């Protein structure tokens, strides 16, 4: 069974969705460790409430990004983790982590990449005036929100949406596609060729329906 390590910095709703998928037998993996870089992260409580081992590694305690990543790698390896999920993890990762888990780190980003990388993606989408927004799960590489795309799901932007309303709708997509992508990886059904990820076999059911808004 693939052992998943989940890195969180905040409230942990994606972690909840992942744990729920595991419980329902839809993850194809077991969450073996949750690591947070922030002591107050809700994700730590969610993990503890679900009997998942947790580890707090405060990034400020390390002299460099790479030293912090070394500590992450040590904790992940000690917990025999095979696959890493960045679920609202707010630190840039370095080659230290990437090289320890090559093509084995997945991130969820609240936008249809390559649009709106970085922080406040939902606000960027509202400000830009797009009609369609969504979420992306991708393998992590050495550029921000950039690696090969595994799954994407789209939602319509409603005329009266503010950032919070759009973020909530996008979050539902994240909660559908992140566990689905983890399962595809865990089942060995993802083949990465450069930027292209080929999914072997049937693709998972689509996330919430895309609406046409004019
Ligand atoms: C999500 O929107 C995720 O896409 C972004 O940070 C947010 C984390 O939310 N990277 P949560 O902590 O999983 O609730």
Task: Provide a descriptive summary of the structure in words.
- With 214 residues, the protein is α/β, with parallel strands linked by helices.
- It folds into two domains: 1-102, 3-Layer(aba) Sandwich (Rossmann fold); 107-214, Rossmann fold (3-Layer(aba) Sandwich), CATH 3.40.50.
- It contains six helices and nine strands.
- Strands 3-2-1-4-5-6-7 form a seven-stranded mixed beta sheet, sandwiched between helices. A two-stranded antiparallel ribbon has the order 8-9.
- The longest helix is centred in the last third of the chain and has 24 residues, at 163-186.
- The structure holds 5-O-phosphono-beta-D-ribofuranosylamine.
- 5-O-phosphono-beta-D-ribofuranosylamine (GRF) is lined by residues 8, 10-14, 87-88, 108-110, 171, 174.
Estimated structural class: alpha/beta
Quaternary assembly = single chain
Tell the overall outline: globular
Mean pLDDT: 95
CATH names the topology of the largest domain as Rossmann fold
CATH class of the largest domain equals Alpha Beta
Strand element count: 9
Main β sheet profile: 7 strands, mixed
What's the number of structural domains? 2
Stretches where pLDDT is under 50 for at least 5 consecutive residues are: none
What bound compounds does this protein have?
A: 5-O-phosphono-beta-D-ribofuranosylamine
Radius of gyration: 17 Å
The strand order across the widest sheet is 3-2-1-4-5-6-7
Count of helical stretches: 6
What is the CA-CA span between the terminal residues? Answer: 46 Å
CATH 2nd-level architecture of the largest domain: 3-Layer(aba) Sandwich
Helix content: 25-40%
Instruction: Give me the CATH superfamily of the largest domain.
Output: Formyl transferase, N-terminal domain
Quote the beta fraction. 15-25%
H/E order of the elements?
EHEHEHEHEHEEHEE
